[in-house]
Amino acid sequence: MPEKYAFIDVLESIKTPKNLKGKESHYISHGSINEIEKVCAGIKQKVLFSEKECREIERKIDEVGDNARRGKYKSHTWDTAPLRNKYFFGEGYTYGSQMARKGPGQEKLYEKGAIDPIPEWINRIVVKRLEDEKLLPKNWITSAVINDYLPGGCIVSHVDPIHIFDRPIVSVSFFSKCALSFGCRFSFKPIRVTDPVVCLPMDRGCATSISGFAADDITHCIRPQDVKSRRAVIILRRTLDTAPRIGDPVSSRVSPRRERRSVDPMYLRNKDDRKRHSREDSEINNKRRRSDTDYIRGGKRHKEQAKDVKIENNKSEKDTSPTHSDDPVVKRSFTRRPKPFFM
Ligand code: OGA
Ligand code: MN
Q: Taking the chain, what is the end-to-end CA distance rounded to the nearest angstrom?
């Protein structure tokens, strides 16, 4: 099957404070040219779905939501929080507070069969197109995740667990335009997000593939201000044969291909993290790779990766400032964390 859709020139599409030339854009990359080039080298994008096809897929995503609410899925298939629903198909994994041992690198796949299989329509409509367009190898993915965000929903900076998922990581966006931001640091109460190194626009119907530096050496996130109306994504990934699974005999083995990698401290999300990382770098390299750097140290907040930050959609379209500190919903998120909202 010949490739029918053109690759987007990602580097060309990136807006920086310099090349904006007075034009307005919500999606501005603040990294140096060198950083932007490094990140963009690992990104591929193609608009793969027409308006009509998007509508068909969006109807299917609605059906998934209906099925979940009607109790048609296994318990670990659906994970809900106020501003986002997450549906795992094929494979699912423990994350955040679901983990017996917490922290990046501790994620584990659920037992085989604990998650519903990948719906037929995802393979037929979405995966097939990605395979035909050389964005995915044939018969390769084992996991499909749908994230369905309401306005103001977000996903904090993270690296998709490197011991769980192979690369590339391919996603397709629906319902509305959004942006994937790289190299942001989050702080909370009130929620704040630092300027991204790269802010990558993702149109409705657009497929995005990340690998290399973009997937492994810098965190990515969805900023709350970039989810202006409902937005969903289908993320297609392959789980590694070496990925630990609940119920496996206890083992501290780390995938040899990946154990020596670590996130560049430059791209860790806050200063304390960067300091700590430089101290622990050799130790981390020997033990495991930091797959998620999104936690805050100091004060009462301690190792809070996988935050279930519930951001109320109390902002106007234009207001992209962080949520106010008196937002009770955000406040509550620091007292109890029944569920992480990211990943
Ligand atoms: C994820 C993720 C980004 C998106 O779920 O791991 O990075 O586009 N999602 O929603
Ligand atoms: Mn991710």
A: 33
Give the residue among 151, 95, 77 at the shortest CA–CA distance from 339. Answer: 95
Residue 220 Cβ contacting ligand 1 at under 6 Å: yes
Measured CA distances, 185 to 155, 221, 296, 323, 327 (Å): 12, 9, 10, 15, 20
93 flagged as catalytic: yes
Q: Domains in the chain, start-ordered, CATH in brackets?
A: 10-335 (2.60.120.590)
Residue 185 alpha carbon to ligand 1 centre in Å: 16
Q: Ligand 1: does its nearest atom lie under 6 Å from the Cβ of 222?
A: yes
Please work out whether the CB of residue 231 comes within 6 Å of at least one atom of ligand 1.
Answer: no
- What phi and psi, each to the nearest 5 degrees, are found at residue 93? -145, 160
Print burial letters for 183-222: b (CB count within 10 Å at least 16), e (below 16): bbbbebbebebbebbbbbbbbbbbbbbbbebbbbbbbbbb
Residue 140 CA to ligand 2 center (angstroms) comes to 18
Of residues 5, 27, 73, 93, which has the active-site annotation? Answer: 93
Q: Which atom of ligand 1 is nearest to the CA of 220?
A: 7
Q: Is the CB of 180 under 6 A from ligand 1?
A: yes
Pocket test for ligand 1, best of 87, 145, 147, 170 (most atoms within 8 A of CB): 147
* Per-residue pLDDT in tens (0 to 9) along the chain, 343 residues: 777 899 999 999 999 998 887 777 889 999 999 999 999 999 999 999 999 999 999 999 999 999 999 999 999 999 998 899 999 999 999 876 667 777 778 899 999 999 999 999 999 999 999 999 999 999 999 999 999 999 999 999 999 999 999 999 999 999 999 999 999 999 998 889 999 999 999 999 999 999 999 999 999 999 999 999 999 999 999 999 999 999 888 755 555 555 445 565 556 545 555 444 433 333 322 322 333 332 222 223 223 333 333 332 222 222 222 222 222 222 333 333 333 333 3
Q: Is the CB of 233 under 6 A from ligand 1?
A: yes
Distance 333 CA to ligand 1 centre (A): 20
pTM, two decimal places: 0.78
